[in-house]
Amino acid sequence: ILLGSCLHPAAAFPKGCYPSEEEGLKTFRCSNAQLTEVPRDIPNDTNKLYLDFNQIPFLPRDAFRDLPLLLELDLSHNAIARIETGAFQGLAEHLHSLDLSSNRLVSVSKDAFSNLKAKVNLSHNPWLCDCRLQELIRAVELVAESSGGIVCDSSAQEEHVGKAFLQVIADTDLCNVYKKTTDIAMLVTMFGWFAMVISYLVYYVRQNQEDARRHLEYLKSLPSKQRRSEESSTISTVV
């Protein structure tokens, strides 16, 4: 009976996943298990969860909602390109280590890590270095030795590509650059509309002047009596 009760929960685990106990902490390992999503039915008393070396593409909202005692979460070496806001909801109380290194993260909102106190490893991802990444880096606590691995894979400023992100933001405030660029774009747009309005007014005035000139030439070509009548009519119309 005891053996059956022990084996029954294990039967629900994905292939390659198994529970264990390490240093007195309840651990659930799914390393290199060819997973394409965060598995369900993880024991809710798990303290350490290893999902590294899989093919998980994204983290949905409430992905770890039922793991209130989780202390360490390893998601390194996956294919994670998107993290929904609320993916780590419920982990803020206990989680102290989150490894997202060696994934496919390009841009992530800081809101996805809202209220997390864990030290985060974001190294070795193809980051787009912009204001959004700057806000994210300032919102989380990085694992100290991982900061040099956050490198600009792409950037609006070509000179930043290939540089460590912390080096870039030490010299440049990317959020101020973005704000200035936005302000300049708005000014250019407003100037463009203003120029179009002025151009139309100039065209309209010149067209009216040309029409008036042609009409006067026409009046001059008429016999004097008819011309006076036409001139009177034109003056009345103008008034």
From TrEMBL:
TM ranges: 184-205
Pfam families in the cross-refs: LRR_1 (PF00560), LRR_8 (PF13855)
Entry membrane topology: Single-pass membrane protein
Subcellular location: Membrane
GO cellular component, one term: plasma membrane
Keywords: Leucine-rich repeat, Membrane, Repeat, Signal, Transmembrane, Transmembrane helix
Location (main, coarse): membrane
The family this protein is said to belong to: Belongs to the LRRC3 family.
Classification via PANTHER family: ANTIGEN BSP, PUTATIVE-RELATED, LEUCINE-RICH REPEAT-CONTAINING PROTEIN 3B-LIKE
Protein name: LRC3B protein
